[in-house]
C-alpha cells in the first residue's frame, strides 16, 4: 500500500486541491438536514415565510455548490489517475526495453501485452477515483457523525453499533476477491497470448497448414469460458454478505423511529419531529459514504493483485545494465576482439537442467577494423551466441568482448547501436510503409537517402514498380513480401544506419539460390569497408573471408582462410565436401 501511495506523490498539489474541494462539498452537504430541521420545527409551525424562503434558498444553494464541487474534483481526480496510469505504463514499457534478450525468449508476447493493457487497464477505476472516494467519504462520514451527535448522541450510538461488524465483513470479501482477481488476470493473460499467437499471420498459416483451425477455436473457446466463469465468480464473491449490510443499513431508519417511540414511552424527553427527520436524513447521508467506503476497501484489496503483477515487472532484475559513465569512442574504427570469452545460458533460458558445459568456452579472437570473419559449425556449436555478444544482447559470463579495445559493457547502448548493425535470418518488419520501416534506422533520412540505400540493397527497382512505391504497407511482419525481399529491405535499413561493424547471422540460409545471389550482392555492398562477422550456413558465401573459424561444442576447433582450412583436411574441409555433394541434389 505504501508503494501504491508513492505513485501519487508527484501529484500532491492537485490531490490537495481535490481534498479541499471534497472537504468543502462534504461539509456543505451536511448543512441540508439542519436547514430541514429549521423548516419543520420553526419556519412552518410559526408561519415565518421570510425564514422559510431563506431556508429553501439555502437548501438549493447547498445542492448547487455540492454539484459544482463534485464536477471540479472529478475532473482533477480523473486527471491525476490517468497520469498515474500513464506513469505505470511508461515505467513498465521502459523496464521491458532494458531487459536482455533472455527475458523475451522465455516470456510469451501475449503475457507482456496483457500486463501493460489488461492489468494496468483494470486498475483504472482504482487510481482515478479511489483517492477521491476515500477523502470524500471519510470527510462525509466524520462530518455526518459529528452532526448526528450534535442532534442526539443516543440515537447516534444505536446507529453505529453494527459498524465494526460491517468493516470485518467487507475485509473478508476483499480478501476473497483479491484471490479471484489474481486467477482472473492470469487467465486473461493466457487468453491474450493465445490470441496473439494464433491470430498472427504465422499463427493462421500454421493452423491452416496443419488443419488445426478447429482445434485452435475450441482451445480459445475453452479459455474464454474459464474467464467468463472467473468473472462471474469475482462479481458474486461476497455479494450476499454485502447485500446483508445494505439491508441492515436500510432498516436502520425504522429502528431509529422505533427507538425514539420506545424512549418517549418510558419517560425519556420527546425528540422533536424536526430533529428526528433531520437525524434520519443524516443517517441516510451516512449510509451512502459508509457503503462506498466498504466497497472501496473491497476494490482496493482486489486491485492489490493487479498492482502486484505490475510491480513484478517493475522489479525484474536487469541483466544488461547501461554503464553509469560510458566510454566514448570517436570515431569507431571497428576492431572487434573476443578475449577469453566464456558464456553459459541459465536453466530458465534453455528450459533444461543446469549443465556444466558452456555454450562458449575460452574464445580468443581478433577481427581487425575493416576485416571479415566467418564463423561456421554444426547446430548448437555457439555461432549465434557469439553474434549476440558483440551488440551486447547478452553479457559474457567470462572474459570480455571489446570494440577498439573498449569492453562493450563500458559503452552506452546508443554507441553500440550506432557501431554494430545486425542482419539476421529472422527479418522483422513493422506493420507500416516501406519508407517508415527504413526510417526506423534513421528517422531524419531524406527520400534520396532511402533510394540510395535501397539501390545498394538491390531492392529499389522492385519498390519503384509497386503502385505506392515507398509508401507501400509491408503488412504484418512483412508477409506481403518474399523472404529475399524482406532480407534486402533489412539490409537497406542497415545501410541507412551506416554502422562500422556488421554482424550477419545466417542472413541467406533460408533463401533459394537465385534469391541468395541477389541478397549476397546486397550484402557485399553493405560489407564494403566495414568490419564484418558472418554466421555462415552455406559455406559458399564465406570463401573470401579474411578469417574463418570453426566452432565445436563452444570452442574454436579450426581457424584460417578458406584455402588454409581446405589444405588441412580437417572438419571444415569435410563440411565443404558434404555441401558440394548436396548441391546437385538441391
TrEMBL record:
The keyword Disulfide bond does not apply. Belongs to the ABC transporter superfamily. Siderophore-Fe(3+) uptake transporter (SIUT) (TC 3.A.1.21) family. It is found in: Cell inner membrane. The keyword Amino-acid biosynthesis does not apply. It comes from Prauserella marina. Keywords: ATP-binding, Cell inner membrane, Cell membrane, Membrane, Nucleotide-binding, Transmembrane, Transmembrane helix, Transport. This is ATP-binding cassette, subfamily B. PANTHER family: ATP-BINDING CASSETTE SUB-FAMILY B MEMBER 10, MITOCHONDRIAL (PTHR43394:SF1), ATP-DEPENDENT PERMEASE MDL1, MITOCHONDRIAL (PTHR43394).
Amino acid at each position: 500500500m505504501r508503494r501504491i501511495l508513492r505513485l501519487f506523490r508527484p501529484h500532491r498539489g492537485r490531490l490537495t486541491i481535490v481534498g479541499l474541494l471534497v472537504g468543502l462539498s462534504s461539509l456543505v452537504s451536511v448543512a441540508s438536514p439542519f436547514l430541514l430541521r429549521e423548516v419543520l420545527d420553526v419556519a412552518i409551525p410559526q408561519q415565518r415565510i421570510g425564514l422559510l424562503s431563506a431556508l429553501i434558498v439555502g437548501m438549493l444553494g447547498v445542492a448547487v455548490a455540492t454539484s459544482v464541487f463534485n464536477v471540479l474534483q472529478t475532473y482533477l481526480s480523473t486527471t491525476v489517475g490517468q497520469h498515474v496510469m500513464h506513469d505505470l505504463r511508461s515505467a513498465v514499457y521502459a523496464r521491458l526495453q532494458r531487459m536482455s534478450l533472455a527475458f523475451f525468449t522465455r516470456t510469451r508476447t501475449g503475457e507482456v501485452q496483457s500486463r501493460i493493457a489488461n492489468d494496468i487497464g483494470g486498475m483504472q477505476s482504482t487510481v482515478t477515483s479511489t483517492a477521491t472516494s476515500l477523502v470524500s467519504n471519510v470527510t462525509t462520514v466524520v462530518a455526518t457523525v459529528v452532526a448526528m451527535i450534535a442532534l442526539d448522541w443516543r440515537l447516534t450510538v444505536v446507529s453505529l453499533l453494527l459498524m465494526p461488524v460491517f468493516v470485518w465483513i467487507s475485509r473478508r470479501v476483499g480478501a476473497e476477491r483479491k484471490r479471484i482477481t489474481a486467477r482472473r488476470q492470469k487467465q486473461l493473460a493466457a487468453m491474450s497470448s493465445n490470441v496473439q499467437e494464433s491470430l498472427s499471420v504465422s499463427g493462421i498459416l500454421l493452423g491452416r497448414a496443419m488443419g488445426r483451425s478447429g482445434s485452435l477455436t475450441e482451445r480459445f473457446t475453452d479459455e474464454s469460458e474459464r474467464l467468463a466463469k472467473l468473472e462471474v465468480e469475482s462479481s458474486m464473491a461476497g455479494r450476499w454478505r454485502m447485500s446483508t449490510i445494505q439491508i441492515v443499513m436500510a432498516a436502520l431508519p425504522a429502528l431509529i423511529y422505533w427507538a425514539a417511540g420506545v424512549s418517549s414511552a418510558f419517560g425519556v424527553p420527546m425528540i422533536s419531529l424536526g430533529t428526528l427527520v433531520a437525524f434520519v436524513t443524516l443517517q441516510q447521508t451516512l449510509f451512502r459514504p459508509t457503503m462506498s467506503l466498504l466497497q472501496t476497501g473491497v476494490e482496493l484489496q482486489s486491485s492489490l493483485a493487479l498492482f502486484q503483477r505490475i510491480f513484478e515487472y517493475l522489479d525484474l532484475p536487469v541483466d544488461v545494465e547501461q554503464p553509469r559513465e560510458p566510454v566514448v569512442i570517436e570515431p569507431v574504427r571497428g576492431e572487434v576482439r573476443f578475449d577469453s570469452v566464456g558464456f553459459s545460458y541459465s536453466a530458465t533460458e534453455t528450459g533444461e537442467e543446469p549443465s556444466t558445459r558452456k555454450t562458449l568456452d575460452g574464445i580468443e579472437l581478433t577481427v581487425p577494423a575493416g576485416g571479415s570473419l566467418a564463423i561456421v559449425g554444426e547446430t548448437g556449436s555457439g555461432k549465434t551466441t557469439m553474434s549476440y555478444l558483440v551488440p551486447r544482447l547478452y553479457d559474457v559470463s567470462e572474459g570480455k568482448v571489446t570494440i577498439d579495445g573498449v569492453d562493450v559493457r563500458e559503452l552506452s547502448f546508443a554507441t553500440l547501436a550506432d557501431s554494430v548493425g545486425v542482419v539476421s535470418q529472422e527479418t522483422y518488419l513493422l506493420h507500416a510503409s516501406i519508407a517508415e520501416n527504413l526510417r526506423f534506422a534513421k528517422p531524419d533520412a531524406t527520400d534520396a537517402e532511402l533510394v540510395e540505400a535501397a539501390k545498394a540493397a538491390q531492392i529499389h527497382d522492385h519498390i519503384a514498380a509497386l503502385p505506392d512505391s515507398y509508401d507501400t504497407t509491408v503488412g504484418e511482419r512483412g508477409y506481403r513480401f518474399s523472404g529475399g525481399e524482406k532480407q534486402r529491405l533489412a539490409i537497406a535499413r542497415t545501410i541507412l544506419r551506416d554502422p562500422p561493424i556488421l554482424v550477419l547471422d545466417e542472413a541467406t540460409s533460408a533463401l533459394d539460390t537465385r534469391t541468395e545471389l541477389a541478397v549476397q550482392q546486397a550484402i557485399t555492398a553493405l560489407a564494403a569497408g566495414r568490419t564484418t562477422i558472418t554466421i555462415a550456413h552455406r559455406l559458399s558465401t564465406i570463401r573470401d573471408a579474411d578469417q574463418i573459424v570453426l566452432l565445436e561444442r563452444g570452442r574454436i576447433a579450426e581457424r584460417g582462410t578458406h584455402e588454409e582450412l581446405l589444405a588441412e583436411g580437417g572438419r571444415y574441409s569435410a563440411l565443404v565436401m558434404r555441401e558440394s555433394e548436396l548441391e546437385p541434389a538441391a
